[in-house]
Amino acid sequence: MSDDDTPRGYASPPCLAHEIDPTYFDPLAVDPEQARDVARWRKAERVRLLDQRAGLSVAARKAAGEAIADRLDSFLAERVGSLAGLTISAWWPIKAEIDLRHWLAGLADRGARAALPLVAVKAQPLVFREWTPATRMERGFWNIPVPAEGDEIIPDITLSPVVGWDAECFRLGYGGGYFDRTLAAIRPAPLAIGVGLEAARIATIYPQPHDIPMQAVVTETGIHNPAESA
Ligand SMILES: Nc1nc2c(c(=O)[nH]1)N(C=O)[C@@H](CNc1ccc(C(=O)N[C@@H](CCC(=O)O)C(=O)O)cc1)CN2
Ligand SMILES: Nc1ncnc2c1ncn2[C@@H]1O[C@H](COP(=O)(O)OP(=O)(O)OP(=O)(O)O)[C@@H](O)[C@H]1O
């Protein structure tokens, strides 16, 4: 071995394949033009779906929420069995979202723990804190009420509100990418369930590499699993 300290260069060269061969193609790279088109389409689709949801009467939304809670119970009974010992996250409803707070408050009687998400750092995975009806709330990012204090906990099951959903159980949210980032980060991966209205179903969200499908989408009319034909 030489005792000469002068650097001899890198162990492996940087990848310059694209400079050497102009036809080099990275199959994992996203076509930026297509990604822009999809983002623009999603923006318009969110507006349409949110308008449609806002047009629903309070009574219809309440009935949908009750039907969803029942369907969720059947799905979880079949898929998970007892909920005892599990942590289940949901959301504090905004913008005419389905309200599952009553269902969430009832989890304690079944030995399960309810959790709510919060944006701790913009454009980073969500953080979850325990919630009970006694929890002090404060306004968080986007003015969404969040538990004012509490340790970070990791849900075993995540329920997330959908603005739109498709047959593969991909979810369209408000466009922050928060749920995808969160599901990509939590290990072991939680059972991810989308929750929304049957009317929010769309043919496809044009899934992009960052999109993570839900294991099921629960609506007021039933449970939808991925790859189920329409
Ligand atoms: N009630 C509720 N709470 C929730 C969620 C939810 O969907 N519903 N979230 C579920 O994940 C997280 C918050 N999600 C958010 C998603 C996007 C934006 C936001 O700033 N949207 C921008 C558009 C961003 C873009 O297009 O680049 C905006 O509308 O101005 C904020 C919060 C956590 N809490
Ligand atoms: N795992 C990730 N890592 C980094 N950026 C991500 C990730 N997931 C999503 N994003 C970013 O978030 C942006 C918005 O994503 P998308 O349109 O899927 O949001 P959404 O699912 O509707 O929103 P939300 O989950 O907050 O309700 C994407 O363009 C992408 O840049």
Automatic annotation (TrEMBL):
Entry's EC annotation: 6.3.3.2
Keyword check for NAD: no
UniProt KW keywords: ATP-binding, Ligase, Magnesium, Metal-binding, Nucleotide-binding
UniProt key word Iron: no
Position of the signal peptide: none
Reactions catalysed: (6S)-5-formyl-5,6,7,8-tetrahydrofolate + ATP = (6R)-5,10-methenyltetrahydrofolate + ADP + phosphate
Cofactor (UniProt): Mg(2+)
GO molecular function, one term: metal ion binding
Gene Ontology BP term (one): tetrahydrofolate interconversion
Enzyme's top EC category: ligase
NCBIfam families, A to Z: MTHFS_bact
Recorded family membership: Belongs to the 5-formyltetrahydrofolate cyclo-ligase family.
Protein name: 5-formyltetrahydrofolate cyclo-ligase
Source organism per UniProt: Maritimibacter fusiformis
The organism's taxonomic lineage, starting at the top: Bacteria, Pseudomonadati, Pseudomonadota, Alphaproteobacteria, Rhodobacterales
